[in-house]
Structures are given as structure tokens and as C-alpha cells.
Design a protein that fits this description.
The complex is a heterodimer of chains A (562) and B (298).
Chain A: H1 4-16, H2 23-29, E1 66-74, H3 90-99, E2 101-110, H4 114-123, E3 130-134, H5 135-143, H6 151-157, H7 160-166, E4 178-179, E5 182-183, E6 186-189, E7 198-202, H8 203-209, H9 217-229, E8 241-244, H10 251-257, E9 267-269, E10 275-277, H11 282-296, H12 309-317, E11 321-326, H13 331-341, E12 347-350, E13 363-364, E14 368-374, H14 382-395, H15 402-409, H16 434-448, H17 457-467, H18 473-490, E15 495-496, H19 505-526, H20 534-561
Parallel strand pairs in A: 1-2, 8-11, 13-15
Antiparallel strand pairs in A: 3-14, 4-5, 6-14, 7-11, 7-12, 9-10
Helix pairs in contact in A: 1-2, 12-13, 13-18, 16-18, 17-18, 19-20
Chain B: H1 5-27, E1 38-39, H2 45-48, E2 50-51, H3 55-62, H4 65-97, H5 101-112, H6 119-129, H7 136-143, H8 155-183, H9 187-195, H10 200-224, H11 232-238, H12 244-247, H13 250-260, H14 264-292
Antiparallel strand pairs in B: 1-2
Helix pairs in contact in B: 3-14, 4-8, 4-10, 5-8, 6-11, 8-10, 10-14, 13-14
Classes of the chains: A alpha/beta (562), B mainly alpha (298).
């Protein structure tokens, strides 16, 4: 919430990770629109509807070709092959060739400015045919009657592969995009476990100090303390710390607080089935007290309050922090950067600490943070679904264009290392279950030392990159084998975000100041600048400053779903 | 002197582009202020959006942060104005006593230089220099036995740092103004005073300071109009959750509310309040300036 640049930076870096996650940034900013698998899917929508006339082809070509306007985003990781550009490249050519859709960038902006520019476009009612928007923008555009109803287009044209991706885990990504039973936006899913915390620890530091990987909070306390006191990098200076925490209280906070069954900025079900806000529950007080202890023992970075996500990542890369709580893909960034600084370093992935009763109950925020919408004035809104169909056929295992994408395009020397999937039109989306599948194949392949067991097209080249010791090879191996292994170990025991709707009226007006109050109070408590009793005052302030109204609205939504 | 009609047309043409730019970028956008009284809906436009009267203003004062940001803004900018007045005057007086010309010129340029750096860059530098974990400043403190100060985590020190760094960055400009005023003092006064046996200190006290007093009064009254501008660039690039309650200012508040949360009505309302107060302050400062420093625009 504080630092706009940070968020964009984080988003940029995250995007550069090959699995295209906006992990940390979205995790921190997408606090109230989460979804959960437990939600019922509207029965009158998607899948089971009757397939109309057989001549409707999900990949039917427009003849003559149509033009569809979008907006483009550039960033330092968006690289083009010789002679290509954001307006004209191999992907735009393929879409024109196969679907007869010519994508045209209405404007192109740097990733750090796209949020503000798109807000401007929405507010001047000057939107392109198709745009990718966040939760707030989506709900504004629906309420302002700016976007097209996609219900029919989706039911008619969505291919089975596209449906599989859109409806993975219950299709909860559709929830905020619906109004009166109609779909106004297509979810842009990330990996299903996108924002689930995993504990990464410097293996070389553990070995050097003769420590065991921690399983409980108390063991974590000892290891983190040792990392800050016993000079694990051996340079004779007290310049290392245990737990890297960022000032948006990201995954390190979740990793520790989950052990107390406390879930910040998440709507959870209480014993009576009501939805309650995780940040104000009594469990959170215990978690904060422990974090205060950890900070006082110098087990947490003493300067975390002044460090945003990017700065924390830099620190970890520079070998200052030894315990990093992050998403499954983070061996790609920042963990792989530690090795360029300290060549003999190594990280291992572990589950987060267990709670007092020995159970593991991490939080799983939603995996959809953006939606693709079509302008109300667009002539062919089904072109959005068709383009998504084509991308599904290229990217998702079993698609008829898998070979075209993975072999002919991504596999050719011309496009090597260009992260060509970022040019997917109109916008990239992932197969939420993909990494778990590849993870399983990696496990088999590693156990039997047989690379042929990796058959997923997106896994094959990653396995080869690992075998050939290519850049990122280490990271692919770590995240697909170890991180996915940890996720598999978590199994089904997650606390899901239980509020799936669009921001409520009071949320729109007051959530920002409530979030600010929360962040400020929690930061002060952790740093010992405020006594733990401040928590009680925060909880009552939160309620009186609009939280009670929000709770009512959220529960009204929940009862309307039943 | 008589000016004929043809000449006037030429002058009007010269001024036209400036007037046009002013109309286009300063006056035309003023109509957007109506958003402050609407539930603005872009697909309906300015005219057909729902009118809500002073609802946004009322709601603003219901929000817990609004009064705090106004208070912070005034406190921080007053600190900046006072420091920004004293430092350049004292510095200009010292520099004026320097007799070596190249030294004076060089120093003058050097202190003006930081003015050209952006806060994005300075922000990054300050975080590193003032870090408690190996930052140069705190290492220096520790080497003389003073415990390190966490500038970015302590509300008191953060404000001090904000004011000092702002003065350091900007005082070069005012120094030049005061130096110019100093050169305007008639040297005969100094000579006469020296003959009468006045010491350097006495000469400063009775000739130099009264000589530049009108400029000091002018600069301070004019800065009154800036009381609600506490420096967006600087604070936006430096603040963090630990110090936000004591450093969040109106402009950062508007930025978050308008550009991030897209609550245009609310953001416009608070911007309008700021403009109204700023307008009153400018009128007052202009009156004061014209009374005490004989400063007139018209």
C-alpha cells in the first residue's frame, strides 16, 4: 500500500520468473477479494451448458481478419527477437494466421505505470477492446456499465482446455466478475498455490553452525537467533540476520502467524460458520507477541520496517538473511541471486513451522488477481474467448498447438531466453495445476535418474536446463522438486480466503485506512515500539472505523451464496 | 513613450502561447473540480453523474486519517519554512564575508547543486547512508561512542531527517537570492561605519541585516502560501509504515486515495479543500508582503 514503485518492481521481477507469477505484490495488495475452493460454482454458468450448433468452432477463423485493440506493457524483462516489436512479433503473427485476429496496441506503457494509466483510461471512458484489470478496476467497470457481458461467449466458445484452467479449484475466480449471474470478466489464473508460504533456509549456514532445520516456532527462534549472532558467513562482522521480513508484512509474517492459526488480512470462518477478519482475532495477538519476541532477540531483520519487498530480496541475494519465507517459485528470484554473490551457498525448502498441536495449516490466498474484460462497445467480444482458447491450446498440456509453442517458437534459437509466453494474446494466463504435475514428474525422474519421466511440455525443457546446468537450471530444479514437494506435503490442509466477492461498498471507502492502521499497529508491535496490549485497541478501532459494517456486508454476501 | 497599435498586436502575439498554455493546463482542468461533489461515473460523464453535494467532504472528516494528515502537513512545512529561512540567511552572511572570489563562487555553486537531484535518487542514497546496519552516518556516530539512530524507524528522527535533508537540498537557491540582496547594499555605509569604529559584528548587525530585511520579509511571507505543500516527492520516496502516522501529508494522501484506490471524488474533495486554504494563505501573504516589503504584482 505504501510504495507504488515497490509494487511495480516486485511485479516486474515476479513476471520475469518464468512461471509468470505476480506473487508477492499481488499477495500484499489483494487482501480482500480472495476466493476459496469451498465456494459453490454457479450452476447456470460454464461447463454443463448445452453446446449449441456444431459449426461453432472455438478456434474459428475470422475472414476477413478483425482488429482488436489492447494495451501493451513493457518492462526490462520483455525482450524481442531481431526485427520484432511489441506491436509485431511471432505471437501477433500466429494469432492473425490461426484466428484472423490482428491485435493492436492502443498504447504501450512501462509496467510501473500501467495501473495509473489504465485507471485514467477507465475514468475517461476510453478503454481498449480488451484490457487486463485488477479487482478494484473490475468492480468499478462492472458498476459503471463499461464492460461486455461475456456469459454467452464463454458458454458458446470456451474450449475444454480453457475451461479446465478457468474452473480449476472450483472456478472461484469468476465470483467477483459476476453480477446478477452474468460473467463480465475472464479470470487470469496463476498457479493454484501462488501465494502459499514455504520456508527457505540457507543450507550452508545450517551446516556451518551445526544446526537442524527448524520444525517448530521455538526451533525457528533458535536457528534465526544463531544466524544473527554466530556469524554464519564467517566474515567476522555482525552483518547477518535470521528471518527476512518486508515492510508490507508479507509471507514471513504469514509463515510465523500460521503456527498460531492466525491469518492476516484474510476472511476466515469462525466456529459458528460466520466469516470473520483474521487480523483482529485473538490468535493474532499470540502471533504478534511471538514476532515481537523474535524481533527483540534480533532473529528478524532489525530494519525490516524500512525495507520493501525489493530491498529484502536484494538483502537475501547479498547473503544477509538466512531464512526466507516465499512462494514456491522464489528459488528463481531472489534465492538464485545468492549464488552469484556467494558461489558455494545453497537453499533448501521446508514446510513452515507447525503449530503447538503439531498441525500444519498454512493460508492460501486466492490465485486470481486480474481479469480480462471486453469493452461494451467491442464488436466481437467472443474474440477474447477465442484468443484465450488458442493460448490454452499452446500452453496447456494436451493442447493441439503445444508443439508449435514449445518446440517451434520457444525452442528455436531465435526466441531462446526471450520469455516468449509473455506475448500471449491478449494476456498471459497460467494453468493453475501445471507445476504440481511437473513437480510430481521431477520427483520420479530424480528418484530414478531418468529424465524421460518428465513429459509435460513445460517440464521437459526445464529438466534439460537443469541437466545442462543452464542459467536458472538450479532454480527450476529447486522449485519443481523441493518447493512443489513441500506443497504436496501440505496436502489439502489450507485456510482459504473465504470472501470471494467484489469489494463491498464500505471496503471501497474504508479498507485503505483500515489497512494502514493494521500495518502500522502490527509493525510497531513487532518492533516493540508499542506494547502487545495495543492489539486490543486496534481490534476495537478496526471494528468501529468501518470493520463492523464490512463484516456485515461480507456475511450478507456469504448467506446469499447458500 | 507612445506605443502604436501595431506594436501592441505583436506583443499580444508574443504572450499568446503562454496564455494558451495557462488556459489549457491550469484553467480548463478546474472544471474537473465538480467531481468533488459527484459520484463520478465516467460512462455518464461530468454532467450526468449523480450529484452528492458535500457528501465527500463530510466523509473525509469522518475518516480517521484526514485530520492527522492536515496536521502533519502544517507541522512539517512550518519546520521546513523556518529552517529554510534561517539557514540560507546565515549562510549568505558568512559567504558574504569571504573575500576570495573563486572560493565564494565555487561554494555558491556547490550548495546549489543538490537542488538538481531527484528525490528518487536521494531517497535511495539516504536509506543506505543512514542505515543502522553499516550505514556511514551511524558508523561515524558509533565510532565516537554514540548509539546508532534508526532514522527511518523513529518518528522524531524521521521528521528531523526530512527537514534537514530538504533544507540541505534546497537552501542553495535562497542563498543566491540573499547574496544578490547583499550586493545591493551601498558600500559607502560600511566605509562610514568602519571610520566610526564599528566592528565587523556591529556592521553586520546594523547595516547588513537591516539592508536585507525587506528580502527576508518578502521570502517569508511568500512562503506562507506554501504551508500546505510539505514536499510530496520527498515524503513519498522516504516514508514507510513505521513513520506514516507522523509523516503522511495531504499530497501523499491524495495520491493514494486518487491514483491508487481510484476514489476520485474523495481525492478531488480534499484537493479542493487544500486549494481553498492555500488560496486564502496566498492572499494573506500577498497583503503582508505588499504592506511590509512593498512587494506588488499589479
Amino acid at each position: 500500500m505504501i510504495n507504488k514503485r515497490t509494487r511495480s518492481f516486485a511485479a516486474l521481477l515476479a513476471a520475469s520468473a518464468l512461471i509468470l507469477s505476480s506473487a508477492c505484490s499481488s499477495g500484499n495488495n489483494n487482501e480482500n477479494g480472495g476466493n476459496s475452493t469451498s465456494a459453490p460454482v454457479d450452476s447456470n454458468t460454464p461447463s454443463e451448458s448445452s453446446t449449441p450448433a456444431a459449426n461453432i468452432d472455438p478456434l474459428g477463423k475470422y475472414d476477413p481478419p478483425i482488429e482488436v485493440s489492447v494495451v501493451g506493457t513493457t518492462g526490462s524483462n520483455v525482450l524481442f527477437a531481431e526485427g520484432e516489436s511489441i506491436d509485431d512479433n511471432i505471437m501477433t503473427k500466429k494469432y492473425l494466421e490461426i484466428l484472423g485476429i490482428q491485435f493492436k496496441n492502443e498504447w504501450v506503457s512501462d509496467a510501473s505505470q500501467s495501473l495509473e494509466k489504465l485507471n485514467l483510461a477507465i475514468n475517461t471512458n476510453n478503454i481498449p477492446d480488451i484490457s487486463k484489470v485488477d479487482l478494484n478496476q473490475l468492480s468499478r467497470m462492472i458498476n459503471q456499465d463499461q464492460v461486455a457481458d461475456l456469459t454467452e461467449a464463454y458458454e458458446t466458445y470456451a474450449s475444454p482446455l480453457l475451461r479446465k484452467s478457468m474452473e480449476y479449484g472450483g472456478g472461484t475466480g469468476f465470483a467477483p466478475a459476476k453480477k446478477d449471474g452474468k460473467i463480465y470478466g475472464m479470470p487470469v489464473p496463476n498457479d493454484y498455490y501462488e501465494n502459499v508460504a514455504i520456508m527457505y533456509i540457507r543450507k550452508d549456514w545450517l551446516e556451518k553452525l551445526g544446526l537442524q532445520p527448524p520444525k517448530t516456532i521455538d526451533e525457528l527462534y533458535e536457528v534465526a537467533k544463531a544466524f544473527s549472532e554466530r556469524d554464519p558467513d564467517g566474515n567476522g562482522k555482525a552483518d547477518t540476520y535470521g528471518i527476512a521480513l518486508d515492510n508490507a508484512l508479507g509471507m514471513a509474517f504469514d509463515g510465523v502467524s500460521s503456527a498460531y492459526k492466525a491469518y492476516r488480512a484474510t476472511w476466515v470462518k469462525d466456529d459458528s460458520g460466520q466469516l470473520v477478519y483474521g487480523s483482529i482475532q485473538p490468535e493474532m495477538k499470540e502471533a504478534l507477541a511471538k514476532l515481537q519476541d523474535l524481533y527483540a532477540a534480533k532473529a528478524i531483520d532489525q530494519e525490516f520496517g524500512a525495507k520493501d519487498w525489493g530491498k529484502t530480496a536484494d538483502d537475501v541475494g547479498a547473503g544477509k538473511g538466512g531464512i526466507y519465507f516465499g512462494a514456491f517459485w522464489q528459488p528463481l528470484y531472489p534465492l538464485s541471486t545468492t549464488m552469484s554473490h556467494t558461489p558455494d551457498s545453497d537453499w533448501n525448502a521446508y514446510p513452515i513451522p507447525v503449530s503447538a498441536d503439531g498441525s500444519l495449516m498454512p493460508k492460501r490466498p486466492n490465485n486470481v488477481f486480474s481479469w480480462m474484460v471486453a469493452s461494451k462497445d467491442m464488436e466481437h467480444p467472443e474474440a477474447l474467448i477465442k484468443s484465450m482458447n488458442l493460448w490454452a491450446e499452446m500452453w496447456i498440456e494436451g493442447g493441439q498447438y503445444n508443439d508449435l509453442f514449445y518446440k517451434d517458437i520457444q525452442g528455436s534459437p531465435q526466441y531462446a531466453g526471450k520469455e516468449i509466453h509473455q506475448y500471449a494474446k491478449p494476456y498471459f494466463f497460467d494453468d493453475p495445476g501445471k507445476n504440481m504435475v511437473i513437480g510430481g514428474q521431477f520427483k520420479e525422474a530424480a528418484a530414478k535418474d531418468d529424465g524421460s519421466l518428465v513429459t509435460h511440455p513445460d517440464g521437459v525443457w526445464k529438466w534439460n536446463a537443469y541437466k545442462k546446468n543452464e542459467p536458472n537450471g538450479w532454480a527450476y530444479y529447486k522449485y519443481l522438486l523441493e518447493s512443489e514437494g513441500v506443497l504436496a506435503q501440505y496436502g489439502d490442509s489450507f485456510v482459504h480466503e473465504s470472501y470471494l466477492g467484489a469489494p463491498t461498498e464500505t471496503m471501497t471507502k474504508r479498507q485503505a485506512s483500515l489497512n494502514k492502521l493494521e500495518l502500522e499497529t502490527f509493525t510497531k508491535i513487532i518492533m516493540g515500539k508499542a506494547d502487545i496490549s495495543e492489539f486490543d485497541k486496534f481490534a476495537s478501532d478496526w471494528k468501529s472505523l468501518g470493520g463492523d459494517d464490512i463484516t456485515k456486508e461480507v456475511n450478507a454476501w456469504a448467506s446469499a451464496q447458500q | 513613450m507612445k506605443i502604436n497599435k501595431k506594436d501592441l498586436t505583436f506583443f499580444h502575439l508574443l504572450v499568446a502561447p503562454g496564455v494558451l498554455v495557462l488556459l489549457l493546463f491550469s484553467y480548463l482542468p478546474m472544471f474537473g473540480i465538480v467531481i468533488a461533489f459527484q459520484n463520478f461515473n465516467p460512462s455518464k460523464g461530468f454532467i450526468f453523474s449523480e450529484w452528492v453535494g458535500f457528501e465527500h467532504v463530510r466523509f473525509l472528516f469522518e475518516l480517521p486519517d484526514t485530520m492527522g494528515t492536515i496536521r502533519n502537513t502544517i507541522e512539517i512545512s512550518l519546520m521546513k519554512i523556518v529552517a529554510g529561512l534561517v539557514v540560507p540567511v546565515v549562510f549568505a552572511l558568512f559567504l558574504n564575508e569571504a573575500r576570495i572570489m573563486w572560493f565564494k563562487r565555487t561554494v555558491q555553486s556547490l550548495v546549489y547543486l543538490p537542488h538538481f537531484l531527484s528525490w528518487v535518487i536521494l531517497g535511495g542514497i539516504l536509506v543506505d547512508v543512514l542505515s543502522i546496519n553499516g550505514g556511514a552516518f551511524n558508523q561515524a556516530l558509533q565510532s565516537v561512542g554514540i548509539p546508532p539512530i534508526f532514522f527511518f524507524g523513529d518518528e522524531f528522527w524521521f521528521r528531523i531527517m526530512i527537514v534537514v535533508s530538504d533544507v540541505w537540498k534546497e537552501f542553495g537557491f535562497s542563498t543566491i537570492v540573499y547574496l544578490a540582496a547583499l550586493t545591493g547594499i551601498n558600500p559607502a555605509l560600511y566605509e562610514a561605519a568602519a571610520i566610526d569604529g564599528a566592528t565587523r559584528w556591529k556592521r553586520t548587525l546594523y547595516i547588513t541585516i537591516p539592508g536585507i530585511l525587506p528580502v527576508i520579509v518578502l521570502m517569508s511571507t511568500l512562503s506562507l502560501g506554501n504551508v500546505l505543500n510539505a514536499g510530496f516527492d520527498q515524503i513519498f520516496n522516504l516514508y514507510n509504515p513505521m513513520v506514516i502516522s507522523s509523516t503522511d501529508i495531504i499530497d501523499t494522501y491524495i495520491y493514494r486515495m486518487g491514483l491508487i484506490q481510484a476514489q476520485y471524488g474523495l481525492a478531488t474533495a480534499i484537493g479542493l479543500i487544500k486549494s481553498v486554504i492555500g488560496f486564502v494563505l496566498i492572499v494573506i501573504s500577498y497583503r503582508l508582503a505588499s504592506r511590509y516589503a512593498n512587494y506588488r504584482i499589479f
